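Please decode residue identities from the backbone states below.
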């Protein structure tokens, strides 16, 4: 392609040089005609008795000095007074003369006695304005060609130098491209791009590729869905994506991360990050995202079932103890005491069960409250359910209620254990104007005004960071999941600081609920 362009450019340069040479010849001959036509010597000779004798040596000297091919002075009837070939003197001039007879100098290309030439022809005018003679000055095309031939080495040389530079540049550019593409040509790159696009949109995990400046270079459809990105974020910095602060900080660090849990918007994400290196230098990071929102909800339900089973196990253990005590009282002959002891324990447990079942129509939530009551009792915390608690069917997914209430109660029980006796947790729930109100209050040390803004951040906790929850990812996730579930259901959550923290949750019910 470089060679073709250079050849075409050289041909254009040649044609342009040829046209320029002809234009220069026209300008030069016209100037000479003008100069001779106004010469008093020429005017006097043309109107005198011996024009050839005077003009021939004069115009030949001018022709030699100017390098023109011929200068012919002739009469209006075409009779030549001068000519480079003396044998042509006295003959008839060949060429167009009508514009010159009309008093105008003009140029043309005409074939005369010396061959094709570029000539200018003009009038010689006396004092009365009469045309008394004509002058024609010409340069043959062969002479123009000779001048052009002398300039050809420069044109061809320039073309060859351009070709050499262009070829060298092309070779260097091709070499660099080959090195950058690892030796792959256009077909291989096109095929690789097709495979890459297919894989990018087929994987079920979110994929995010960042460069060394923490700008997004690649993102697939799943990553855009998980991070709630409406448009293509390519080229934007991670700080411009609207991510949670902890997730944005992890992406900025570009350190290796394995299965780190982050709460982003309404989703729980498991994030893996692997730094990318090229030629020993940092080239960014590859980030994969997995959606664990549904799994977290199922885990919450499993925790509630596990807590309920643990409650049943504890009650079975206590029932065994009570049974042994009752049998021993009977064996000691204290039957009345045995009856009172057995019925008192049964009545207490039944009252709690009846109150929860009557007040809460959501079976999963009722089971969760019973389980948490048993768990709190085992851990030395009294879980008090407010007598005004009344929750009919809300239409809110049971898994969401388990996530919200379960994490709030777990957090409250842990907080109560950190306080002084008596250790209590208060729970209340009711429906007011189609809004489910939930209140959880503990007797723990509470929160300060400075701690309240951070309480729902993932990873933030007032507990010992080395204290891990069994089977969980660590502390600082429960309240973040509560905030995420509340936002997902269009509700709000507030915290009251001070000794004995209180969490207040408001959730719109899915169907209108009638309350008496």
């Amino acid at each position: 392609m470089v060679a073709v362009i250079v050849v075409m450019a050289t041909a254009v340069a040649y044609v342009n040089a040829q046209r320029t040479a002809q234009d220069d010849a026209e300008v030069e001959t016209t100037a000479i005609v003008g100069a001779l036509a106004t010469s008093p010597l020429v005017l006097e000779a043309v109107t005198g008795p011996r024009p050839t004798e005077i003009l021939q040596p004069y115009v030949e000297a001018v022709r030699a000095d100017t390098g023109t091919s011929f200068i012919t002075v002739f009469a209006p009837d075409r009779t030549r007074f001068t000519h480079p070939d003396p044998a042509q003197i006295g003959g008839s001039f060949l060429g167009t003369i009508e514009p010159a007879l009309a008093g105008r100098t003009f140029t043309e290309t005409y074939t005369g006695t010396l061959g094709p030439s570029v000539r200018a022809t003009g009038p010689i005018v006396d004092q009365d304005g009469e045309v008394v003679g004509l002058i024609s000055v010409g340069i043959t095309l062969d002479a123009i060609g000779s001048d052009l031939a002398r300039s050809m080495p420069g044109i061809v040389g320039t073309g060859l130098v351009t070709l050499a530079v262009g070829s060298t540049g092309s070779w260097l550019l091709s070499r660099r491209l080959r090195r950058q593409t690892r030796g792959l040509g256009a077909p291989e790159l096109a095929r690789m791009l097709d495979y890459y696009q297919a894989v990018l949109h087929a994987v079920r995990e979110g994929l995010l590729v960042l460069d060394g400046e923490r700008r997004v270079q690649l993102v697939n459809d799943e990553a855009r869905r998980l991070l709630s990105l409406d448009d293509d974020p390519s080229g934007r910095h991670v700080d411009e994506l609207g991510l949670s602060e902890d997730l944005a900080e992890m992406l900025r660090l570009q350190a290796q991360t394995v299965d780190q849990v982050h709460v982003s918007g309404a989703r729980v994400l498991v994030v893996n990050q692997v730094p990318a290196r090229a030629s020993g230098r940092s080239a960014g990071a590859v980030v994969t995202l997995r959606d664990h929102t549904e799994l977290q909800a199922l885990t919450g339900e499993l925790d509630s079932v596990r807590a309920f089973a643990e409650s049943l196990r504890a009650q079975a253990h206590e029932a065994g103890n009570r049974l042994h005590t009752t049998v021993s009282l009977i064996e000691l002959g204290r039957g009345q005491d045995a009856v009172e002891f057995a019925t008192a324990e049964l009545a207490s447990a039944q009252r709690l069960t009846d109150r929860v079942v009557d007040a809460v129509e959501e079976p999963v939530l009722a089971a969760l409250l019973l389980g948490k009551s048993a768990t709190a009792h085992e851990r030395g915390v009294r879980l008090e359910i407010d007598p005004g608690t009344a929750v009919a069917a809300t239409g809110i997914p049971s898994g969401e209620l388990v996530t919200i209430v379960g994490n709030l109660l777990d957090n409250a029980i842990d907080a109560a254990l950190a306080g002084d006796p008596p250790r209590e947790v208060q729970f209340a729930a009711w429906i007011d104007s189609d809004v489910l109100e939930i209140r959880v209050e503990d007797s723990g040390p509470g929160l300060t005004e400075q701690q309240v803004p951070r309480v729902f951040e993932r990873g933030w906790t007032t507990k010992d960071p080395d204290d891990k929850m069994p089977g969980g990812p660590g502390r600082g996730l429960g309240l973040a999941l509560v905030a995420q579930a509340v936002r997902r259901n269009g509700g709000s959550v507030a915290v009251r600081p001070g000794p004995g923290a209180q969490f207040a949750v408001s959730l719109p019910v899915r169907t209108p609920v009638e309350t008496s």
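Observation: The first helix runs from residue 2 to 37.
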